[in-house]
Amino acid sequence: MSVPSTHHEWVPFRPAAGVTESQLLAAADALHTDFLAASTGYLRRMLLRDENGAYVDCVAWRSRADHAAAMRDATNHPAAQAFFALIDDPEAVGAGMRHFDVARQWP
Fold first, then answer.
1. Handedness of CA 23, 25, 29, 32 (dihedral sign)
2. What is this structure's pTM?
């Protein structure tokens, strides 16, 4: 069985100073509903949180090209800009945005 081409975006971050979790989650929901779900090649998303208040936004795309096109669109999308405004610099968590392609997957 062949593995469908999948590209994953991994973005560790902390909320910006003064941002509550409810504000962050509301903006994350709006980003999903108003932008990501309508983007070509979007597959799924998980927002992960650790015990120290750090988050990872993990988004799966059909391809690198689909991801790149969506990121170009995000620069002008209100829901994307609202979410990005609530997060601190991803470098503050120790590793900036990274991208991975699926090497192998199991059910």
1. positive
2. 0.84
